[in-house]
Amino acid sequence: MEPRIVDFAPKAVVGYEIIGGGNDFDKIPGFWAQVMGDERYPALQNLDCCADCTEYGAFVEYTDGGAFRYMICRELKAGASAPDGFATGQINGGKYAGFESSVEDCPKTFDIAYEWADKNGHKIPANGTSFELYDDRMANGILEVFVPLA
After folding, report:
1. Residue 105: CB atoms within 10 Å
2. Terminal CA-to-CA distance of the chain, rounded, Å?
3. Fewer CB within 10 A of the end CB, N or C, for the chain?
4. How many domains does the chain fold into?
């Protein structure tokens, strides 16, 4: 599987967050199910402070101890503020490798992406933001996984 290489501008994002650490990555599908199953998902979709309809699942922060902050989010319009009850974060700008995936294969696709980066001599920046992009391809069950490249 060969990725597409793209340059992303940094994006301020707004949405909902979960804090995890170590091997807590398996909590993310449950977090999505919770958000999509209650009033939070319609609230996120109806925010008027967002730049467009694209949604992200983004690891917006990592610590040296292995903790992470993951957000289900959308891009915040320039100059807009997040409403009460929503978290904010940043998807860092830079060069990324993007891999198409199904929802079911998303965790495995992240593994493939990091293996591809390592095998092809790419370093993953310490402050890099890995993320899933959910756009109009989701109508066909397709998302795209992005990993940062140094």
Report:
1. 15
2. 20
3. N
4. 1
pLDDT digits 0-9 by tens, 100-126 = 999 999 999 999 999 999 999 998 887
CATH number at residue 113: 3.20.80.10
Provide the 10 A C-beta neighbour count for residue 43.
15
Q: What's the pLDDT tens digit per position in 9-58? A: 999 999 999 999 877 888 999 999 999 999 999 999 999 888 888 999 99
Cα 53 from Cα 126, distance rounded (Å): 29
pTM of the model: 0.92
SS (H, E, C) the chain: CCCEEEEECCEEEEEEEEEEECCHHHHHHHHHHHHHHCCHHHHHHCCCCEEEEEEEEEEEEECCCCEEEEEEEEEECCCCCCCCCCEEEEECCEEEEEEEEECCCHHHHHHHHHHHHHHCCCCCCCCCCEEEEECHHHHHCEEEEEEEEC
